[in-house]
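Deliverable D4.2, example record:
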Amino acid sequence: MPKKFTFLLALLVALGLPLVLRSGTLASEVLIYAMAALACNLLLGYTGLLSFGQGIFFGLGSYTIAILLTRLHLPMPLALLAAVAMGALGAALVGWVAIRQRGTYFVMLTLAFAQMFYFAAYTASDLTGGDNGLLDVPRPGFMDTPWRYYAFVALLFLLTFGLLLRVTDSIFGRTLLAIRDNEDRAAAAGYDLKRFKLLAFVISGSVTGLAGGLHSMMTGIAPLSNAEYHTSEMILLITVIGGTGNLFASVLGSVFYVLLADWLSTLWPRWLLLLGLLLIGVSVGMQRGLWGLCEAAWRRVFQRKPAQPAVRGEQA
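Output generated by the structure prediction step:
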């Protein structure tokens, strides 16, 4: 799909959410988790790395911006850049170790790091607030309403989407696809697999750190739950539901998951059971996610082959 068309779809989502949602906070949440899913898709869909460590970078971004704004009182732009940097640094450390393994061992390493980070955040209560988290994370005065904050989040979302679109469409992105499809052949072609994987990890971690920082400013708190491995699972679920290997699919997954979770939570206190059943249906019936379903519908409606005229000999 052309880059301009893909970016146009993302722009339509950012402009359309205020028209269909009454809550600016819910709209901001959709785009924040969309950014986290974009970062996860870079690893899973383009590099073939199934990481359960995304919650580490989300939590790092969340805690970093909360500490810098509440204790050091840094300007918001500097604190947000620091959240991005901490996400990248955490991803560099985790990736440097994890990419030395493949398959199940790689997955187990990322999960182990996620658990370690959670317990480190839990025990370092003087720094992270422990079980209570860090409270009263401020926002600048020009973001005093939920919809003004949404405008800021939407701007960063579009900037992030555009940058990742350029990354995936570059030679670097195509090299990641080659590594995903056949690591041995990519290595035989002379590519440094560890360097490419590590760089993909760093880019993914920086974007996830940005999402974590924005989430803390949205809610006004940096909770311990942002560092749980359940956060990694949720980001991964959003990515898989939307579809891997396409950036806009991650946006679709975030819209579907966040809005559906919000609606189901009003129907039944045990709404996660309903969501689990729905996810089973998606996994069984739509292996390519929502984006694959949209592509199939597009082909059926707009790419039907015209009926072939009958040959005269056959008519006789």
